[in-house]
Structure prediction request, 400 residues.
Amino acid sequence: MSNQRAVLISAGALIDGSGEPPLRPGAVLIEGDRIRSIGAHINAPEGVTRIDLPDGTITPGLIDCHVHLSDAGLADASVQDRDASGLRILRMAEHARRTLVAGFTTVRDVGGRDHLEFALRRAAMEGLVRTPRLILAGKIVSMTTAGASSWPGMYRQADGAREVVKAVREQVAAGADVIKIMATGAVLAPGHERPTSAQFTREELRAAVDTAHALGLRIAAHAHGIDGIRRAVEAGVDTIEHGTHLHEDAGVAKEIAGRGVFLVPTLKALAPIADPEGPGVPEDMRAKAQDRRSDRDRTFRVALELGVPIAMGTDAATPFNRHGENAEELELMVSLGMSPLAAIVAASGIAARALGRDDIGVLAPGTLADVVVWSGMPHEDIRALQRAPIAVFLGGERVV
Ligand SMILES: [Zn+2]
Prediction:
């Protein structure tokens, strides 16, 4: 044993994130920033810190593949648009903190504002704030569209393949780890932008995909309508965000399953807009969300049936979809027929694959020690993940 600090956690159960059934009991040995070993029982090496939680369950740190840390989940985000950037980045830091203490150790931010998210990551690297691991897209690359005016600083509009190439390269130059493009209109955009309409042309989509892939980045496509989904899949995107109308073409769903394109369903984004808990959601937005919800549910069931890889994502930031309440998405997934264990894997091992990462999402010797201990048995009752975790480790460091 090296002289790196070591922690041995023993609990009633351990879910490794790979899809294997839980170990009962289970234990994980952390050494430095890595997992050293897992097993039903691990003999404590000398000098190890021991944590024994016989009623708890150990899981990998959870991963949310679709958030916007810039926005709070207000009914109408535009009320904060003109706030000073210093205030906005402090809010982002708080959103990131809430997410981390809720057991989410990695988030993919698929659309920030004014590139402030890169400054947040820098602040975390300098130890000024604590955040989950941040996989950042920078600005959303989109055709010229009404939606861009709804979220100032979030879109990079580009028309024609040449401009799209430049827009993608700008995000990479700013520090992006992933590219996000709009393949269809958005639900939350003004009334005349339709989520069912395809946006970028095939040529523009291919330009975006080829540019991202050539630079070693994965690419995520926002897509509700089936025409936009079809075009995005043909162009070679890695993840389909929302995928609302995918159920309309089983052929495309089968192709996605066969090619291993990930669906990020963001079930949590629509529910509170369709049935808001308070006033303030514009009526045209509410009508669009209600329309979409039955499609979204059907798509989730079709994807489950056809074996489409499903990676968990909340779209945290949309109205009443708050940072730190990310685990509610897993309850919605289970309500539509996914097993609790599969939902946990969608937010760990499969989510990591969707992000192209093999060093997180699974508890195995050598992976980064992002580990959470929950009270209760989330593989029996998924709502256990909505209670504050007992302990959260990020890269071997205990942060809760
Ligand atoms: Zn989003």
The first strand starts at residue 6 and ends at 14. The pocket of zinc ion is lined by residues 66, 68, 110-111, 315 (CB under 6 Å). The mean pLDDT is 95.
